[in-house]
Amino acid sequence: MKKLVIGTFLIAFGAFALNSVQLAPQEQHFGLQKTAAITLGYDRSMSEKTIKAAVIDSYYRQVCKNGQIVRWNKSYMPLSVYIQDSKDVPEFYREVVMNAYLAWQRASEGIVRFQFVEDPSQADMKCYFKNGNPSDAIGVHEFAVNGNRITSSTITFSKTDKKGHSHDSKQLYSSALQEVGHSIGLTGNSTSIYDVMYPIGTKFNTEITTRDLKTLALVYATIPDATNIPLTQSEKSMLFTSSEILSTLNVPVDDNTNLNEYVGTDVASHLALAEQYRKRAQYDKAAHEYQIVAQTKSDNRSRSEVFYEIAVMYLDAEMYDEAKSAAEIAWNTDENDLTITLPPLLNYYMKRSNTAVQQLEELLKSNPYNKYAYKLLCQIYRDKHHENLLNSTIRRYGKTAGEVE
After folding, report:
1. How confident is the model at residue 375 (pLDDT cuts 50, 70, 90)?
2. What is the rounded CA–CA span in Å between residue 168 and residue 150?
3. pLDDT in tens, 283-320
4. Is 57 within the bounds of a domain?
5. Residue 150 contacts residue 75 (beta carbons within 8 Å)
6. Do residues 3 and 316 lie in contact, with contact meaning Cβ atoms separated by under 8 Å?
7. Tell me, what CATH number does 399's domain have?
């Protein structure tokens, strides 16, 4: 579990600063001229460079890997939501799930909107509390699609955990955020632990991130393969196909690519190569591609983030000497809140949790705003089931280093 949860701590950091890299000699618009400012959202009035930057700093590619874009028609908002009022679960369950919907509504600035109803027959989306889920997950979402039409969307939450205890409100909220995300069209998962849509839920994934929102905005800028109400031709004319959005990257690297025959030509292609080599457990080759990405960065902070990612990759592979070397480069390149957490992260992976805890406590005492140290310390206490220490940490640093709902 530790490797899955911590191992992809910041896989997205390799792309965080790509927006500052010149990827095209000039901006070209896809078609229509921009007529109005859009706070959050994309359409054909945007330049290719804008769309490309959004794709890089999102997990849209992971959503598209599922083969189809399934999402609701924006003109049909608000969606009607039914949440079961069950007497067999604590009263706060229903409120927590409702808050998850409202969090997405607020964060998306109206891309998705909801209204709550008491009759399931009047609902577009339904939430139930039942005994257990086949996958042992707290929540499971399922779209029912007939042809190219969404016929139902259902989230089922388990009433209790494996031990028969009621769910912690934070865990339930984290799960609800993720399942609601699936239900509004984020059918894939992020590779960054900080995003709500990271596949392994923790009670601390309670903040919808910029990457979550950029991915959602791109999904709603895509002509869907399945939706509830067919889009008009006028609506489609403002949107893209998924292949058009992905083509902005011009990176033909996927699971079937012969990497020995592919040579990276720009930042995006080198990053894609790094991800593929990493996925195929060719870690040294992945590190080489990451280093090329690091060389394109214009500042030490961005370069250090890439070497941090290399260190995490090697930790995942239990290649500790290589991880230490990358960690040292990351820290020496730029000492910041992220890189100073590398020593405790290394100790945590190497099963020296007590030493890691001491280091993290010292970091937070000197800087109570270090969210990376805070989240890692919380994760360690959670892994070891030290609930008292966990709650104490949340009380001391939750308001400064990170908000826990």
Report:
1. confident
2. 32
3. 999 999 999 989 988 888 888 989 999 999 999 899 99
4. no
5. no
6. yes
7. 1.25.40
Same domain, 79 and 212: yes
Helix axes 92-107, 169-183, angle to 10 degrees: 50
Query: Residue 80 in 3-state DSSP?
Result: strand
Contact status, residue 135 vs residue 178, Cβ threshold 8 Å: no
Question: What's the structural domain count of the chain?
Answer: 2
> What's the burial of 151, exposed, middle or buried (CB within 10 Å: 0-12/13-18/19+)?
exposed
Pick left, alpha or beta for residue 250 (phi over 0 → left; psi -120 to 50 → alpha; otherwise beta): left
Cβ-contact 325, 356 below 8 angstroms? no
224 preceded by a cis bond (ω within 30 of 0): no
Interior/surface letters 34-47, b for 16+ CB within 10 angstroms, e for the rest: eeeeeeebbbbbbb
Provide the residue range defining the domain that includes 208: 74-219
d(CA 116, CA 184): 15
Distance CA(287)–CA(267), nearest Å, equals 14
Return the pLDDT at 39: 45
pTM above 0.85, yes or no: no
Structure tokens given for 381: 């206490």
Q: How many helices (H) and strands (E) does the chain have?
A: 17, 5
Q: Does residue 309 belong to any structural domain of this protein?
A: no
341 and 210 share a domain?
no
Q: Are residues 215 and 342 in the same domain?
A: no
- Cα gap 242→220, rounded to integer Å: 11
Are 126 and 154 in contact, with CB atoms under 8 Å apart?
A: yes
Strands 139-146 and 149-158: antiparallel
Q: Of the candidates 219, 242, 272, which is a domain's last residue?
A: 219
pLDDT at 319: 94
Among candidates 113, 93, 94, which has minimal Cα distance to 105?
113
